[in-house]
Amino acid sequence: MPFRDDIVIKICGSAGDGSISAVDILNRAAALMGYHILNFDSYPAEIRGFGKSVGTTRISRVRPLTPGDRADCLVSLNDPHTITELPTLNESGIVIYENRPGSFLEEDQVIAGFIMPGMTGYGAPLRDLSVTAVQSARSRNIISLGILAGIFRMHPDGFEEAIRIRFSGKKDSVVKSNIKAFHLGRKYALDEIAKRDQIDFGEQLLERPGEISIMSGNEAVAEACIDSRIRLYAGYPITPATRIMEILAKTLPDRDGLTVQTEDEISAIGHVLGAGFAGKRAVTATSGPGLCLMTELINWAVMAEIPAVVIDCQRGGPSTGLPTRTEQSDLNIAVSGGSGDSPRVVLAPTNVEECYTLTRESFEIAESFQAPVIVLLDFFLANRIEDIDSKRLTGEYHGEFPGDLVHSGNEPFKRFKLTESGISPRALPGMAGLLHTVTGLEHDQKGMPDYETKNHRDMTAKRFRKMETLARIWRGSDPFGDDGDLDAGIVSWGSTVGSVMEAIDILRGQGVRAGGLFPRLIWPVQAEQLAAFSRRSRQLFVAEMNYSGQLASLYAINLSRKFGRICGVYAGPVPVQDIVDEILRGLP
Description:
single chain, Pyruvate-ferredoxin Oxidoreductase, domain 3, Rossmann fold, 20 strands
């Protein structure tokens, strides 16, 4: 495939160098040029001035599914940090670096000395050009974008517009100075740098029908909350979920809603359950440590049958773990976190668009099935940025309180009535004639505490029947890859799905009949769909981003066969080639 059709660019610096800001501009510029983008940033948990920040953007004519295992171009805003990124560069990759640093650097700290034969190095006076443009070195990141655009012949109009959007809240002079810095860098590249690489966009502008939205998984979740007309967001700041609260804190007050920053995660889930009991849509977002604290009240919501939505942006664990690294290791606590048999719904989007659609659906499920719903993102999915057709970010609004669940008839109101579906009539506080009790104790159909064995057996079965009903009516996931019998069938979930899809395409290109099944409804398990896919697969694998294989263990109960586990912790997205290699090793 020609380089200009699918390339990966990394911009690396120290925290505060503007590498993430530069990548944000690059993302939007590429999308405005008509290309698809997938961006993932890696940054330190420490304060400004410490640690390495790396922005990675994949630009492609077709929609990319991963950030790519290897980079085609590496832009250095900090040589010592960028040297550590060189192993991620292709053997024929490109390095753009500062050739006139403002201070002395030791020989082993200069990236030019580490560029290997086969690689292409382009040195440029980033600092001097920045001083010329804005009288300081603070625009080195924008200068580097200009040099990048000049070397690769990327159309400048998209960059200009992206810079205007990025600095739209600043003074007009700031916008103009950054545009000036970009063009100065681009002119230097066109006039002074002899091109020696194959990446060439030819200043093309591709056709992209409709309006494009560029957003992260967290931003898609927040947009879904707004479009679902939530009345309350309650949360405690925690990486990587805080961005959701920041957005809703600005938008909800103008939409008859409220954002509350609580003293801790226990209080946050308490707020959400109080709103759900009153019939108002509410949500909280957290990460693994916060979900641990919420477990008791989520368990109470199962018993009391109160709607609640919890967004869990997973990060490396256990405990406070790795705040700015990714992992899919909260599945066990999401599915089983609680005393006794504690059924709840667990959903897992696989891309940014699904962060929107599944969040929208989570509110409908929570209210219709009167149960807590946990939506599992992870750091990679929460923070990665994609371009999306804006028309796809829509959905029908069904209201905060499903009217067909309200009690009717002359018999005494039974809030927890035993029904075939497991779903009971629901009433809000104050509704005339619908008085009932809600408690965390086991209770009878009216909500009064009842400790008899038969009652407990009936109520437990009722709560699980709700899950069975959902598993039966939930749309299945369309299989991916080859039809019919498979040499290798791969089950995966969440953000790892993109890596698995690319791995399947590679395997098919090597003559392996391969396919995938990617459930979005993680719990309850759609056992029939899983069994049907298993029967098609001569060799079956479960791929995920945690050490112990949590989904594999969950599904082992439903699979009466041996299967391979592809699991590990990477602190970043699962490398596609690792999956390919594991599959090939597992095939006879």
